[in-house]
Write a structure and sequence with these properties.
With 491 residues, the protein is mainly beta. It is 10% helix and 55% strand. The protein has a 14-stranded antiparallel barrel.
Length: 491
């Protein structure tokens, strides 16, 4: 790939990038996984009224008040993704695993034992977590009986924006013989891939990166009955997606006056990086010594994001071309696009926990997030108008339920959890509902503790091989199996 730096000028229109950007790019940041400590994960993240865990403050900031002492923890997680795809009847499997230090934090607890104030406890916490681990790998292949990927380049050439990036897409496709001017319609272009269908296509994608959150938490309690907390969150993201799309066809040659393209390889590497800010508010009310009720609000996250893109295009075994042009290659510069903003939706959570004689508990959280409020912005709001309108129409107010339980036997704790999250789409063709199960063990040494969790989740997707031109998708089921170990200490 060429390493020429291409810096977009101020007049560069973002319309062409907006055409490439899709709803799934926004959902990458709007949807958060259940990560964090092993105890938190083993109970399905149902901690809105439980507290006493550093990951619980991400659900309800008041949860930091349920520590009895100063406390710190660190967590390591093994992330494993198994992707099963089906593209026009051809099935493929791909798996990918990584190991990550995904949580580290501490809380300081201050008790006022003088009795001079009803506000008798304050907690201050600092916690870092990877809210999303993007590491994944997908392979899908099959024979498409209808559409060639060359239609993507036809669309780009016929696109009326005439931006520098759009013009580059045209140059790349024209130079590799994928497109030619329409024989009778001015300023329009047609594909040089032989018609007739039966195009073998395969798609390989590797994703790397994370979405991290650093949380500063303060909470206080009133008469040990009402617990209030606030978080200020700094978000960091770094995401790299590398894709390679291949197509082959053996249909009859085009007429001798028109080139015939047999094989196409289209490589892309997209890097997205940036930062954001959000806040949380939360309250927990101790109705009785056994029953706690919680409510919390998570603000939108306001991101500033940057994209860099590199593309390579190859065609080979071309027919009806000049001698020596049977194989053609066109490599791109690095396109650096203007900074843009993304606002993810806010979230409201209601929680309840019942504690059984201090040896067990059961907890339930119900959360609501309106994904239709997701919005892209930059200096020219019209650049994202169509995409924002599309998200407002296609996405919905989705609900999530988390149920968790814990039972203590002397120094041991046994835990289990269940999580169900609705698809953010009104019609869940692009992304289905998520279902997850989890279990875990803990052992308390007195001053320190070690916890282990296992979680399994699955969700179905319809994966597009290219952003426009063809609507055919690969049906993909992503199964995640994660193991987390957390070491905690009172100090």
């Amino acid at each position: 790939m060429k390493k020429i730096l291409f810096i977009a000028m101020l007049h560069f229109s973002f319309l062409s990038l907006a055409q490439e950007m899709t709803t799934s790019d926004a959902l990458r940041y709007a949807i958060e996984n259940i990560n964090g400590t092993a105890r938190f994960r083993s109970m399905g993240g149902a901690f809105g009224a439980v507290g006493g865990d550093l990951s619980s403050i991400n659900i309800n900031p008041a949860g930091s008040l349920f520590f009895n002492n100063n406390f710190a923890s660190a967590s390591i997680t093994s992330f494993n993704n198994n992707n099963n795809s089906n593209y026009f009847g051809t099935r493929n499997k791909e798996s990918y695993s990584t190991l990550d230090l995904n949580q580290i934090g501490a809380v300081l607890v201050f008790n006022d034992k003088s009795g001079s104030s009803d506000w008798n406890k304050i907690s201050v916490a600092l916690n870092y977590e990877n809210t999303n681990n993007f590491d994944n790998r997908l392979f899908t292949s099959g024979v498409n009986p209808y559409n060639s990927i060359s239609q993507y380049f036809v669309n780009q050439a016929n696109f009326v924006a005439n931006t520098e990036f759009n013009d580059y897409q045209y140059d790349m496709a024209f130079d590799t013989y994928i497109i030619d001017p329409h024989p009778s319609v001015p300023n329009q272009y047609v594909s040089n891939v032989s018609p007739g269908g039966n195009y073998y296509q395969d798609y390989f994608a590797t994703a790397n990166g994370y979405n991290g959150k650093l949380t500063a938490n303060v909470a206080t309690s009133y008469k040990d009955k009402l617990f209030l907390g606030i978080n200020l969150n700094a978000h960091f993201t770094d995401y790299v997606l590398t894709t390679s799309l291949y197509e082959n066809n053996d249909n009859p040659d085009n007429p001798n006056t028109q080139p015939t393209v047999r094989n196409i390889v289209f490589d892309n590497q997209l890097s997205t990086y940036g930062s954001g800010f959000s806040f949380n508010l939360g309250a927990i009310y101790k109705a009785t010594e056994s029953l706690r009720l919680g409510a919390s609000y998570e603000s939108p996250t306001w991101y500033n994001l940057n994209d860099e893109l590199v593309q390579d295009l190859y065609t080979y075994d071309n027919v009806n071309v000049a001698l020596g042009d049977e194989n053609r290659y066109y490599g791109s510069p690095i396109f650096i696009f203007p900074t843009y903003r993304l606002r993810t939706p806010s979230k409201i959570t209601g929680s309840a926990t019942y504690i059984f004689n201090k040896i067990g508990l059961i907890s339930i959280d119900v959360a609501q997030k309106d994904y239709s409020n997701t919005e892209f912005k930059n200096t020219n709001q019209n650049n994202f108008r169509d995409l924002n309108s599309q998200m407002n129409t296609e996405l919905k107010n989705a609900y999530e339920i988390r149920i968790g339980g814990e039972y203590k036997i002397k120094q041991f704790s046994i835990r289990g959890g269940y999580r169900f999250e609705e698809s953010p789409y009104k019609v869940d063709y692009a992304m289905g509902d998520l279902t997850a199960y989890s279990a875990g063990l803990g052992y308390n040494f007195g001053e320190n503790r070690i916890d282990l969790s296992y979680s399994n989740s699955h969700r179905n997707y319809n994966q597009s091989l290219i952003s426009s031109g063809i609507t055919d998708t690969s049906r993909t089921r992503i199964i995640q199996n994660n193991v987390t170990v957390t070491y905690s200490i009172n100090f």
